[in-house]
Design goal:
alpha/beta; Peroxisomal Thiolase, Chain A, domain 1; five-stranded mixed sheet; binds oxa(dethia)-CoA
Length: 324
């Protein structure tokens, strides 16, 4: 009997403040036209002063648990992907654990920047497949607005804040349910590109938080190539063809990168969940935010095949195929 991790609930949270491209054009030398054409972003949400990554994560987690009909005490694993933890330590996941009333099990953070959700999903899936967890909460939560250099137009226009979460449950599927759940996960990193997308601070190096720095064009180039490779790898591992995919739920960094992946898969635009226009790049939160949006509005339905993929600092990248 195959033991798999099924997604049984999705949740999301976005801070109430919306910042438009026009708002940004009042702060730096940019324009709605440039940002829209180069990235597809029109607006993003920004956390309120004092609103922390854990607050965003908790709100998304509560919605996901409610959708799953599961109390927080039933969880035995929380994996939280973030590059913007509340504090250097302990893990933001432990704050969420306490707030959800989860007493046992394990809660920890994963740091793979924009690939964080795909990494966290893979880790939780492996715990479940090995029988080390039954009910896992996987969260992507970020307050990237706190890492931005608001005078650098090449980066500050790209990112937003938010959180998304999924509840995974172990299923020993038979019959009609046998093919439901996470089919496979595929993770990669290439540490020689550490300096292409990084934060120029940290406890060990500068004892400051630092600011996000990016060689945008180079990251773009790697993203287009590596995402095409990993998507192919995921399909091949499952003996599937691009035409079998019902939905592409990509990391939402840049509309042009998403379009490139879709073109290589020959996927029509109505099979892509797009949130980059109203969320911007929310790093580890972008995939679970997009997933929650499309599950909760009824676009993604049980039994459909969903492909997720992401690329981020490290460089890190990965993909996952899920039968909902
Ligand atoms: O989520 C993690 C992974 N991250 C990514 O995948 C991001 C990958 N990179 C990108 O999405 C794109 O490279 C960017 C959106 C960051 C930049 O787009 P680009 O088409 O690569 O632009 P560029 O960096 O080549 O800049 C073109 C021009 C430059 O001016 P010159 O040198 O041609 O005169 C920039 O100075 O656009 C200028 N520019 C801007 N102009 C107005 C850069 N940022 C802005 C801005 N507003 N915000």
């Amino acid at each position: 009997m195959v033991r798999r991790s099924c997604i049984v609930g999705c949740g999301s949270y976005l801070p109430s403040q919306v910042m438009t491209n026009d708002d940004l054009a009042k702060r730096v030398d940019t324009s709605d036209e440039w940002i829209t054409q180069r990235t597809g972003i029109k607006s993003r949400h920004i956390a309120a002063p004092g609103e922390l990554t854990s607050d965003l994560a908790l709100a998304a987690a509560r919605e996901a648990l409610a959708a799953a009909g599961m109390p927080g005490e039933a969880l035995d694993l929380i994996v939280l992907a973030t590059a913007t933890p509340d504090n250097t330590f302990p893990a933001t996941a432990t704050k969420v654990q306490a707030a959800l009333g989860m007493r046992g099990g394990a809660a920890f953070d994963v740091q793979a920047v924009c690939s964080g959700f795909v990494y966290a999903l893979a880790i939780a899936d492996n715990f479940i497949r090995l029988g080390q967890a039954r009910n896992a909460l996987v969260i992507g939560a970020e307050t990237f607005s706190r890492l931005l250099d608001w005078n650098d137009r090449t980066t500050c226009v790209l990112f937003g804040d938010g959180a998304g979460a999924v509840v995974l449950q172990a299923t020993e599927g038979t019959g009609g349910n046998a093919d439901r759940g996470i089919l496979s996960t595929h993770l990669h990193s290439e540490g020689q590109h550490y300096g292409l997308l990084w934060v120029d601070g940290g406890p060990s190096s500068t004892q400051t938080t630092g600011h996000l720095r990016m060689s945008g064009q180079e990251v773009f180039r790697h993203a287009v190539t590596r995402l095409a490779e990993v998507v192919e790898e995921a399909l091949h591992a499952n003996g599937l063809r691009p035409a079998d995919i019902d939905w592409l739920v990509p990391h939402q960094a840049n509309r042009r990168i998403i379009d490139s992946t879709a073109r290589k898969l020959a996927l029509p635009v109505d099979k892509i969940v797009l949130t980059v226009d109203h969320h911007g790049n929310t790093s580890a939160a972008s995939i679970p935010l997009a997933l929650a949006e499309a599950v909760n509005d009824g676009r993604i339905r049980p039994g459909q095949l969903v492909l997720m993929e992401a690329m981020g600092g490290g460089l890190t990248w990965g993909a996952s195929l899920v039968r909902m």
